[in-house]
Amino acid sequence: MTNFINISICIPTYNRADLLNQTLEVLYKENQSNNIEIVISDNASTDHTDKILDKWSRIFPHFVRHRFDSNQGADLNYLKAVELASGKYCWLYGSDDLVVSGAIAKLLKEIETDCDVYIFNRVECTKDMAPKRYRSWWKIPQNRIYDFSIKSHVLAYLYSCSALGGIFSFLTSVIVRKDTWNKMGVDKSYVGSAY
């Protein structure tokens, strides 16, 4: 068993115990390696989230949890989940989101390219997981690497976006290197903006 954590799946949650349970069930089925960490930041849920977390903390090999004493708002909850993570990459992940079969294995292969940020498309589904709408963030299919330290790459990326989600705004679509996140720091003036 390795102690190296490739991906910390950072899940902020608030009063979504049953949905969170489904999310963790799917992630457990997809976790075929021991180098994935589950990090939960609970924003003072008043439902039975604590019981769900007790159960899953005994099942996942790498499980970190935090509970605020009072609701701190979504932004601070997101930030706390990433702060607690120990993985090379942090995947901000909605507590009501699910992955398709094979997604984690594919993701582990993708991050071998060692980029700072990955952004993924999504399929919106009904509550019964019937596909409703495929959401692409780009005008043309993307499978490119952009170097944001080069102005022409930044402009090319922004011009290719067809929706705001392409600019790091849909929670479960964003995976970021933890050391890059830490280097950027947190600008508290954005807290409360949902960005």
Could you characterize the architecture of this molecule?
The protein has helices spanning 17-30, 49-57, 74-84, 103-110, 151-160, 178-184; strands at 7-13, 36-42, 63-67, 89-92, 117-119, 122-125, 131-135, 174-177. By secondary structure, it is an alpha/beta fold. A six-stranded mixed β-sheet has the order 3-2-1-4-8-5. β1 (7-13), α1 and β2 form a beta-alpha-beta unit. The longest helix has 14 residues, at 17-30. It is globular, with a radius of gyration of 17 Å. The mean pLDDT is 81.
Short description:
It contains 6 helices and 8 strands, in the order E-H-E-H-E-H-E-H-E-E-E-H-E-H. By secondary structure, the protein is of the alpha/beta class.
Q: Mind sketching the topology for me?
A:
Layout: E1 7-13, H1 17-30, E2 36-42, H2 49-57, E3 63-67, H3 74-84, E4 89-92, H4 103-110, E5 117-119, E6 122-125, E7 131-135, H5 151-160, E8 174-177, H6 178-184
Parallel strand pairs: 1-2, 1-4, 2-3
Antiparallel strand pairs: 4-8, 5-8, 6-7
Helix pairs in contact: 1-2
